[in-house]
Design brief:
Elements: E1 6-12, E2 15-16, H1 34-48, E3 67-69, E4 73-76, E5 85-89, H2 100-103, E6 108-110, H3 111-120, E7 129-131, E8 134-136, E9 146-147, E10 150-154, E11 163-172, E12 184-193, E13 198-205, H4 208-224, E14 237-243, E15 255-258, H5 267-273, E16 283-286, E17 303-306, E18 311-313, E19 318-319, E20 322-324, H6 329-332, E21 340-342, E22 345-349
Parallel strand pairs: 6-8
Antiparallel strand pairs: 1-13, 1-14, 2-12, 3-13, 4-5, 4-13, 5-6, 7-8, 9-10, 11-12, 15-18, 15-22, 16-17, 19-22, 20-21
Length: 352
């Protein structure tokens, strides 16, 4: 029986920009990757004076955090009384179905459809229907009509706009010591959510003590914000926790799907996890800028991680390592502070 998950819902107060590259502000992710949330929690602990071994880490191997979290995905909620509708990204193996054209644009499966995929290795075309980016049977995400240019592609429903984006202009005004610098116009993509909607993640905790410490960090982050450009109000939220009702009876399988960014613990572990013809995965480069003063202008080192939705040969419910992306330039400054990037992932068994 699968260990029950705690679901954490983040209701975004205004808007959020998700990304780690200053050069790409005009494009935002629609996922808050797990490594970003891990880093935010660790940084909040440091600000709040919370005691945890990771804050004293200076050795070769970072201590275990005592909890695991997924990346944050969108959820829809009609009213405060209605049940949330959780969406998960389409697995990297794709959607094996009879009519590919009808499912080509689907990016998100609701929790019920996602659970069916985990148990059967495919979607149930009789259970739900595609509507633009979403595959769900929830009322309001149904097919409102037909696209005249492609009769198989459903027109977006009215409720699909619960998560929408806008690209807005911003201006960088030079400071007093930058008298010879011109004002720079740039653009930033902001993600907005309908009221009651937002992002959610799944979490497991080793004990109640570490759970309390994580929630204390989230209490701090509610006002500090998550994502990019927080100094102008992006990313503030209110959160709620609940018991997750799905994924309690998943199949006994030699393969599993990752819900978080995943960094293997060793080359040997990676070789074992890829030793199957059924493995499917995608990589992303993670790094970005340091966020601690006085090193805000320094880039971290980079590491490649496996994106969410990959399929690996493993029975581990949680796997992954924490790497130190501390740039070499800190050596010249006699600063030994680690710059941690957590690649610890939740895995769900999946039928292949």
């Amino acid at each position: 029986m699968q260990q029950p998950f705690t679901v954490i819902r983040f209701q975004i107060s205004d808007s959020v920009h998700l990304g780690s590259h200053r050069e790409e502000l005009d494009r935002s992710d629609n996922i808050l990757h797990s490594d970003t949330l891990y880093s935010a929690i660790i940084q909040a602990w440091e600000v709040l004076g919370v005691e945890h071994p990771v804050l004293d880490y200076e050795g070769e191997v970072a201590p275990d955090l005592g909890f695991a979290i997924s990346s944050l995905f969108p959820f829809f909620q009609e009213t405060t009384e209605s049940a949330p509708l959780y969406f998960f990204p389409v697995p990297k193996a794709g959607l094996p179905e009879t009519d590919p054209d009808q499912y080509r644009n689907v990016k998100w499966l609701d929790a019920k459809a996602f659970e069916y995929y985990l148990k059967n290795g495919r979607i149930n075309e009789q259970q739900a229907r595609p509507c633009g980016d979403y595959f769900t049977d929830h009322a309001g995400f149904d097919q409102d009509g037909r696209n005249e240019r492609n009769a198989r592609k459903p027109v977006s429903s009215k409720k699909q706009d619960f998560m929408r984006s806008e690209v807005q202009p911003r201006a960088y005004v030079p400071r007093l010591h930058e008298a010879d610098t011109d004002t720079v116009i740039y653009y930033i993509e902001r993600i907005f959510f309908r009221e009651q909607c937002g992002l959610f993640g799944l979490a497991t905790f080793d004990n109640d003590e570490i759970k309390a410490k994580v929630l204390l960090a989230l209490d701090h982050l509610q006002d500090a914000g998550i994502g990019t450009d927080r100094n102008v109000g992006h990313g503030q939220f209110r959160y709620a926790t609940d018991k997750f009702e799905y994924f309690t009876e998943l199949p006994d399988s030699d393969h599993a799907l990752n819900l978080s960014l995943f960094c293997p613990e060793s080359p040997e572990q990676l070789a074992d996890m890829l030793a199957s013809d059924h493995c499917r995965h995608d990589l992303t480069k993670r790094g970005g800028w340091m966020t601690t003063w006085p090193y805000l202008s320094y880039r971290k080192d980079s590491v490649y991680m496996f994106r969410e939705g990959g399929i690996f040969k493993t029975k581990q419910p949680v796997a992954g390592s924490t790497v130190n992306l501390r740039p070499d330039i800190l050596d010249a400054l006699d600063d030994t502070t680690p710059v941690l990037r957590v690649g610890k992932s939740i895995f769900l068994p999946v039928t292949v």
